[in-house]
Each structure stands twice: as C-alpha cells, then as structure tokens.
Amino acid sequence: MRLSSIFLVAFGVSLLSYPAMKLPVGEPYFAKDDTKQAEPIPKPTSPKTEFAQLNLGETGPPVQAEKDYRIVINIPATKLTLFENAVSVLEFPIAVGQLAYKTPVMRDELKELIWNPWWYPPDSPWAKNDKITPPGPRNPLGPVKMPLSDGVRIHGTSKPWSIGQAASHACIRMHSNNAETLAWFIQTHLTDKNDPSYLEKYKKNGSTSFHVKLDRPVTVDIIYKSVAFIDDAIILYPDLYGKTKDVKDLAMWEMFTNGVDPWQFDLSDIKKPSKKAEEISILKLIR
Q1: Rounded distance, CA 274 to CA 37, Å?
Q2: Which of 274, 275, 173, 285 is nearest to 229 (CA)?
Q3: Nearest to 141 by CA among 125, 158, 128
Q4: Closest CA relative to residue 170, chosen from 194, 154, 182, 156
Q5: CA 1, CA 33: separation in Å to the nearest integer?
Q6: Of 168, 175, 161, 173, whose CA–CA distance to 122 is shortest?
Q7: Is 26 within 8 Å of 39 (Cβ atoms)?
Q8: Options 3.10.450.350, 2.60.40.1080, 2.40.440.10, 2.40.420.20; CATH of 69-223
Q9: Pairwise CA distance, residues 276 & 272, whole Å
Q10: Does 163 score more than 90 pLDDT?
Q11: How many CB atoms are closer than 10 A to CB 84?
C-alpha cells in the first residue's frame, strides 16, 4: 500500500503544529543561477480533456481536442521525457552540457525538425580546429537535429559513449536511434508528413538535408531537479552543476508535494550522490 495515503486528511489539520519547513525558493518551477534550488516540474497549460467543448447551439459529433505535447529535460537526471496530455509517452537517456559549457535552464519551443543536418562549428575556442561536416556517420549531430534558441539543440551523436554524462557543449545529445524515434513521433503527430515513406526518403537520401516545420510548436522545459519522489522512494541525482544547496530540504519538499508527511521520516543521513543516481525507499526511513 502506498504511504502517500497516510496523512491526506490528518496532516493538513496538524500542519500548524510542526516546525516550519525550509521550502525551496526562487522563481516558479525553474532554477536560475541566482536562485537557491529548483522546484517541481510545471504543469501543462492545456487541460486534460479528450474532446473539445461543444457549442450548445451546434449539432453533430464532438470535435476532438488537439493533444498537448511537451518535452521535459532534467539536467541532473540526464533524462528527456515527452509528454502527451501530461502522460509520459517516450523517455530517453541523454548527455547534457559539461561544467564549462552548461546546458541552460529555460523554457523554449521546438518548431522545426532537420533531418540529415550539416554541422557548422560554432565560434567558440573548443571548435576552432573543427571543420564544416556534411550529413553522414561522422556528423556529430547524428541523423536529425531539433533546434531550440541560443544555439542549443536536441540531436543525435557520433559519440554514444557520452550519453548519461555531462559531456556536451550545452546541447542535448541522444543516441541517434532515440533521436530519430523522438523526431519521427513528433513529425507524425504534428505535421501532415506522417507517411512512413518520408522517413524512408530521409534515410535513402542521407546526404541531403530535409527541413520539416511543425504545425504548432512543442514546449520544451529544461529544468534542474536533483531530487524526485517516485513510488514511495526518494531519487537522488548527481548535482552536476553544484546548484543544490540542501538535499534534505528538497527531499522534504518532494515528499510534501506528493502527499507524504516528511516529518514522519528520518532524513538526516540523506546526502548528495557523487556519481550515480541513488534510490532510497522511505520504508527504511520511518522514525
């Protein structure tokens, strides 16, 4: 039985009797360089409805509402998740920016897919000896790139060993087959170019770039969330950029927002993981 049902009523009544909890501060949902910590993932703006509301003066079958698509990239978790109407439909491991070239925390929009992209070295010291690279197996962007703003991209990679690490120059790297899966899913749901023959065409003409505009943009939230609470377990991710000041406070906040009374548990020994994510069952932390 999930412990989240322990205090749904009782805890709300007795809340005032507990000492004040240090809740994370900062702008809603996102951690920036001048704030203390990250806060929970923002909720989607579109309602979770299957059909659009009908005009009472009209007749006929209900009009199906547009589905809401959103990508959430959690930097410490090195994970990308695609949501459809707030339900996770695809999830992939990624590589994020290394400490010297941090992936920025931001909200952005994906408006275009570029299949078989060219790679143009940026005007940066790390790329001063690199050359323009045509589409192909040696292209560092892989088979597809999904451009955001400020030069940040979601793309495949010619360095699959880097996935799961802080290894890029701010971009979001994916295994190339995963990048293809993500891009094709988005294309089939948000454009009229959804026939499999298009994907076959991109692969057959691997030296030619194909630009596909989306009918409407996909919101992309890049967040920094080093602590999560999932299925009565605290998940601790490596603090890749040194943004997490108090892991215990974040664990308490995650428990509280998921309907579990954090003061029923001993969190004194919770510490930041050094390299790999750690999962701690709260059953082991009961006072």
Answers
A1: 18
A2: 285
A3: 158
A4: 154
A5: 40
A6: 168
A7: yes
A8: 2.40.440.10
A9: 10
A10: yes
A11: 15
Structure tokens at 274: 């050094």
Query: From CA 24, how far away is CA 244, in angstroms rounded?
Result: 10
Span 45-65, pLDDT tens digits: 444 444 344 444 555 666 677
Candidates 21, 12, 13; CA nearest to 265 is: 21
Question: 94: closest CA among 85, 84, 103, 86?
Answer: 103
Calculate the dihedral angle through the C-alpha atoms of 286, 237, 106, 110, rounding to the nearest 10 degrees: -110
Kindly tell me the burial class for residue 4, based on how many C-beta atoms sit within 10 Å of its own C-beta (0-12, 13-18, 19 or more).
middle
What's the half-sphere exposure (Cβ side, CA atoms, 13 Å) at 170?
A: 16
pTM tops 0.85, yes or no: no
Q: Are strands 227-230 and 278-281 parallel, antiparallel or unpaired?
A: unpaired
In the chain, the amino acid numbered 58 is: E
Q: For the chain, where do the domains classified as CATH 2.40.440.10 start and end?
A: 69-223
What pLDDT, in 10s, does the model give residues 19-49?
444 444 433 334 444 444 444 445 444 444 4
| CB-count exposure of residue 23 (10 Å: 0-12, 13-18, 19+) | middle
